[in-house]
Amino acid sequence: MKRNLSTTTTDAEQQQENFTELPKRNKTMKNDHSSFVFNLSKLPSDVVLHSILPHYILNLDRYAFLYNKHKYDLCLLFMGKFHNHPSQIHLIFKNVSITSYKAVGRNGEVFNFFEKGILDRVLPSKLQSISFLSNFFTQGTSVSTLPSIIMESAMFLKHLNLTYQTTFKDVEQICSLKLLEHLRLSNSSIPLQEIVQILKSNAKLRCLEYCFPHPPPNEIIDSQILLSAFQERSSTLERLSLNGISGLTDSIVSKLLEILPNLKVLSVQHSPHLTNQAFSNIEQNGKNLTFLDISGCENITCPFKIVQAPNLRTIVMEECDLTSKDVSIKNISCSACITDLSLESCVIKDEVFETIFSKFPSLTSLNLTNTRFVEERNIETFFKNIQNLSDLKELNLTNCQFVSDALFSNIVKKDLKMLRVGGCTRLSDSCIPHLLKFEKLTELDIGKTKISSEGVQSLLDHFKNTNTMLDYLSIHQLNLKDSDILNIQGWSQIERLNLSKNRISDSGFKSLLKYSNLMFLNVSDNLITDSGIDNDLFTNKTLTGLILVANRKITNKKRSQIVMKCTHIFDLHL
């Protein structure tokens, strides 16, 4: 573990050879490898940088971390990968348990990556995707300006994510990124009026997310100037998210639909002033629109009128009280094209389901997570008529407390591929015989129910006997113990398994690692200790995703060992 920072070129080449799955690319950069290793040698002496050489695309969310070498305290943990050719560098800072993009030097000093210029010295020069996602749940401060390594790559950068970077206000820097195609400014302090400058300067912009900003109070939007800027991007803009903007009006949204003929995705969540008028001309002006999100827009009183957009396929209408709204649809020719509907966290009345079952015959995905019914008869209506959705493939009933064993038999659909009933606390082993009737099921969530280990065993026995492989099974929070894991047969039928929030310790964890079919394993918030982390994990080359978060008896020293030895695991959360 106590390796020196000064890694030789030979060592780097050897580690690179061990990684074979390099992405395809069009051109070969010259001298990237040698310059990269040379830059590593120039890092400050008070920094200990590990696990950065095996791969070359930097997805700073794994494989590069700094820690106190003597105490093995993880100070920064990234999870991503490098590749030999740095034409597509991904720089991602995610919410980790410590201050993001900060590190502790050998002398205990805490410093910021950008202030010390660490990234400028380490990263290859040509970046295409930068994503800063941290500091919302951490103590760190956001970036106020982009580091020089990014600005030197201005002619290469295509993706920029500044989510939660509340102190970043340097619009001029964004405007200089002439090849920028995707820009995310969620929870930003940049006022909407300055988006005008970005729209005018970035001619190749195809995707813009400007959501839940932190502008000055009562920001006044000059709609004419704003719309004029959007007009300049009429030929390129395809995806637009303007969520949580208090100044967004009906006239602005209506005009956007008119002047952006190539718009395919539109999200206007939690816009308090939007009414039905915003989408009154959607049939004529939203001809290419395929996805629309109006979650939390309580003043839209006739929400299903938006289905008049001829190519609309997905409607997201979450966190709405639908009991007082007109949910009728007159034009069934348009509604027949809807395939995906999300009503998560809505309050629902009978008329909603009457509309869904009669007007959306092509529905393939229905999300009712956390929904509530006004009356008991609404529940009966749902279960009696769900069979009418003959094309339904995905049904999400997570945390729906109205789902019970007695009613569960009504939703048996042989063609259903994905079923999520996690958190439905009225379900018990009595529902298992009905689950066995889903012949094409590939994803199943039955976590946080009253289903016992015997019920899980019956389910897995069935999958084994029918030679059925499940892509995903979630049995989280079922109070499963090591004895259950060891006794239950049929783990060989699962590719991705969620066992979080159970009581699994070392023996149960190690027994699961012996199954070569498992590609992803979530055992967060269990009882695993350092003793469970050994060669069974280090030599398991089929596991590409592992979540060990909140196993509090795994020490930082052992966590750092996992990062160093499990280079085959690309999705690693510790």
UniProtKB/TrEMBL annotation:
UniProt biased composition (Polar residues): 1-19
Gene Ontology cellular-component annotations: SCF ubiquitin ligase complex
GO biological process: SCF-dependent proteasomal ubiquitin-dependent protein catabolic process
Region feature Disordered, mapped onto this chain: 1-20
Domain of life: Eukaryota
InterPro entries (alphabetical): Leu-rich_rpt, Leu-rich_rpt_Cys-con_subtyp, LRR_dom_sf
The protein's name: F-box domain-containing protein
Annotated source species: Naegleria fowleri
Biological classification of the source: Eukaryota, Discoba, Heterolobosea, Tetramitia, Eutetramitia
